[in-house]
Design a protein that fits this description.
alpha+beta, Four Helix Bundle (Hemerythrin (Met), subunit A), Heat Shock Protein 90, 13 helices, rod-shaped
Length: 545
C-alpha cells in the first residue's frame, strides 16, 4: 500500500530540503569568509612581522660588517648603541609575536622564531661581552698586531652567526607568507567545492520541488477546477482523477461521490418527471374517456335493455311458434325454429354482455367512497383463492402464499378483493401449465404490501408504460376489455395506496405490487394523492399508475 503524504508532510519535507540547501550554501560562504579573514590577518601579521624583521636586520647590519671589524671595535660607544638598538628590536619583535597570538594569527612557526630571537639575543650579549674584553688593558709586545688578537676570531664567528640567523628569520617570514597564501588558495578551493556542488544540487532540488509543487498543488487544483466547472454545466458523468495522495485526492474523491449522488438524484428526478408527465397525459386521456364512458353507457343502456327485453319476449313466444311450425311441417324441431332459438339466445347473451360493459364503464367513471375498515390481508387473499380454485385457468398451476407477518390494511374489503381477483386471474392467464403464482404479504415502510408474482409471459417496456391505460390489454385469451387494471388502479389510488407493475422482460414473468395504508388516511391526504397524479377531486375518473 502506497504511503499517503498529507500536504503538511510535503510542506515540511520541502522546507527541510530548502533549509538544508540554504545551510549548505551558507556554510560554504561562511567558510570562505572565515578563510578570507584568517588569510588577511595572517598576511597583515606577516607584513608587520616582515617590517619588524627588516628593522632588526638593519640594526644588525650596522655591526655585522666582517671586513670592518677593527673600525667597529675602535668605536666602543657606537658599538654599544648598535647592540642596544638590536636588542631593543629583538624585544619589540618578541612583543609583536606575543601580541599577534591575541589577534588569532596562530602559527606553529612562532616557537621557532622565538628560538631564533633568543639565539640572536644570546649572540649579541656574547658579542658585547667579547667586545668589552677586547677593550680591557693588556700587556703586549712590540710585535703584537691587532689582527692577531685572540678575541677577533670569536667575534667574526658571532657576526657570521648573527647574519645567518637574521637572514633565516627573514626567509622564515617569507615562507610563512607563502604558506598563508597557499592556505588561502586551499580554503578558496574548498569553498568552491562546497558552494558550486551545493548550488548545483540546490538548483536541481529547487527544480524538483517546483515540479513536485505542480504535481502536488497546481495540477490537482487545476483538475478540481475543471471537474467542478463541468459539474456546474451539468456533466454528472465526469470523474475527477487526482493522484496526489493527500487532501487534494480526498477532496477529488469527495467530489466524485457528490457527483455520483447528484447523478443518481438527477436520474431519479428525471424518471419521476417522465413518470408524472405520462401520468398527467394518461389522466387527461382517462378523464376524457371517463366523461365519454359515462355518457355512452347511459345512452346505450336503454337500447340494450330494449333489445334484451324484446329477445326475451320473442323467446317466450317461441313455444307457440314451435308448435305451429311442427304442425305445418309435420316434423319435430324444424331447422328454422332451431336457428331462430339459437339466434335469440345469442342476442340475449350479447345484449347482457354489452350491459356488463356499460356497467363497468359506469363503475369506471364513479368516484363513490365506500366504507373502509381494518381488514386482514392474508384472510382476504385466501378468500379470493377459494374462488379462483374453481376456475378453469387455475388447473395445472401452483399458487403459493408467503406471509412474512400478520398484516392488516385500512381498506374496503370488496373493492380490494376485486383488485386481487383481477390480478390473480391475469397472472393465471399469462402462465402455461406448471407455472407458479407467488403472493407475498408483508409490512414495509409503514404500509401494507402485497406482491403478486407470476412466471408467465412477462412484459416489455412498452407494455409496462401502457399497462394501466383504459382498453389496453395483452390477454392471451382474447376475452379482456382492457378495463380491469385501469379500474384496479383507480380503486388502489382511491384508497391512498399505490400499484406498480414490473417485469424483467418477455418470458421472465411479471410482478404487481400493491401498497395500502395501515391506518385511516385523512381526506386531505387522499386528495393530495389524487392531485399528485393529475386528477382533481370530483372528476368522474380514477388516477393512473
Amino acid at each position: 500500500m502506497a504511503i499517503r503524504w498529507r500536504i503538511r508532510h510535503k510542506l515540511i519535507f520541502a522546507f527541510c530540503l530548502t533549509a538544508g540547501i540554504i545551510i549548505l550554501l551558507l556554510g560554504g560562504t561562511l567558510q570562505g569568509l572565515w578563510s578570507y579573514y584568517l588569510t588577511m590577518n595572517s598576511i597583515r601579521g606577516n607584513v608587520a612581522e616582515l617590517k619588524t624583521a627588516e628593522e632588526l636586520k638593519t640594526a644588525l647590519a650596522k655591526m655585522t660588517v666582517p671586513g670592518d671589524l677593527g673600525k667597529l671595535l675602535d668605536e666602543p660607544e657606537k658599538l654599544h648603541r648598535d647592540i642596544s638598538l638590536a636588542l631593543k628590536k629583538i624585544l619589540e619583535y618578541e612583543v609583536f609575536l606575543r601580541d599577534s597570538q591575541s589577534f588569532l594569527v596562530l602559527k606553529n612557526e612562532d616557537a621557532h622564531e622565538k628560538e631564533v630571537l633568543a639565539g640572536l639575543r644570546s649572540d649579541l650579549n656574547a658579542f658585547q661581552t667579547l667586545a668589552e674584553k677586547f677593550h680591557e688593558p693588556r700587556v703586549t709586545g712590540p710585535g703584537d698586531k691587532l689582527s692577531q688578537h685572540p678575541i677577533l676570531e670569536p667575534l667574526r664567528i658571532l657576526i657570521a652567526k648573527i647574519e645567518k640567523e637574521s637572514t633565516l628569520l627573514r626567509d622564515k617570514i617569507h615562507d610563512d607568507l607563502d604558506h598563508s597564501i597557499n592556505d588561502s588558495r586551499r580554503h578558496y578551493q574548498i569553498s568552491l567545492w562546497i558552494i558550486v556542488p551545493s548550488s548545483g544540487i540546490g538548483l536541481l532540488l529547487m527544480a524538483g520541488l517546483l515540479h513536485s509543487f505542480y504535481g502536488w498543488i497546481f495540477y490537482p487544483i487545476r483538475d478540481l477546477e475543471a471537474g467542478v466547472s463541468l459539474l456546474s454545466r451539468g456533466d454528472f458523468n465526469h470523474r475527477i482523477e487526482v493522484k496526489s495522495g493527500d487532501e487534494m485526492e480526498s477532496l477529488g474523491q469527495a467530489f466524485n461521490e457528490m457527483t455520483r449522488r447528484l447523478r443518481e438524484l438527477y436520474t431519479d428526478l428525471a424518471r419521476q418527471v417522465n413518470e408524472r408527465s405520462r401520468q398527467l397525459v394518461r389522466s387527461e386521456k382517462l378523464a376524457s374517456v371517463g366523461f365519454l364512458a359515462a355518457g355512452v353507457a347511459h345512452e346505450i343502456n336503454n337500447p340494450i335493455a330494449g333489445i334484451a327485453f324484446c329477445a326475451e319476449a320473442l323467446e317466450s313466444r317461441l313455444k307457440e311458434l314451435t308448435l305451429l311450425a311442427n304442425k305445418s311441417s309435420g316434423q319435430q324441431n324444424h331447422p328454422c325454429i332451431v336457428d331462430f332459438a339459437r339466434y335469440l339466445k345469442l342476442i340475449q347473451e350479447e345484449a347482457f354482455r354489452c350491459k356488463n360493459i356499460t356497467e363497468k364503464l359506469l363503475d369506471f367513471s364513479r368516484t363513490t367512497e365506500h366504507k373502509r375498515e381494518a381488514v386482514s390481508l392474508p384472510i382476504l387473499v385466501q378468500s379470493v383463492l377459494d374462488v379462483t380454485a374453481h376456475l378453469q385457468n387455475s388447473k395445472g398451476k401452483k399458487i403459493e402464499i408467503k406471509e412474512e407477518q400478520p398484516t392488516k390494511a385500512w381498506i374496503n374489503a370488496e373493492e380490494i378483493k376485486s383488485v386481487i381477483l383481477n390480478l390473480i386471474v391475469n397472472g393465471l392467464d399469462s402462465m402455461d401449465d406448471g407455472g407458479i403464482l407467488t403472493i407475498v404479504i408483508r409490512e414495509k415502510d409503514g404500509q401494507a404490501e402485497l406482491a403478486i408474482k407470476d412466471t408467465g409471459i412477462g412484459m416489455n417496456q412498452e407494455v409496462l408504460e401502457n399497462i394501466f391505460e383504459p382498453f389496453f390489454t395483452q390477454n392471451r385469451t382474447g376475452k379482456g376489455t382492457g378495463l380491469g387494471l385501469t379500474i384496479s388502479h383507480k380503486i388502489i389510488q382511491q384508497h391512498g395506496g399505490e400499484i406498480e407493475a414490473s417485469s424483467d422482460g418477455l418470458g421472465r414473468g411479471s410482478v404487481f405490487t400493491i401498497r395500502l395504508p395501515l391506518h385511516p388516511m385523512s381526506s386531505s391526504k387522499t386528495n393530495e394523492s389524487m392531485r399528485r397524479d393529475g386528477i382533481s377531486a370530483g372528476q368522474p375518473l380514477l388516477v393512473s399508475a
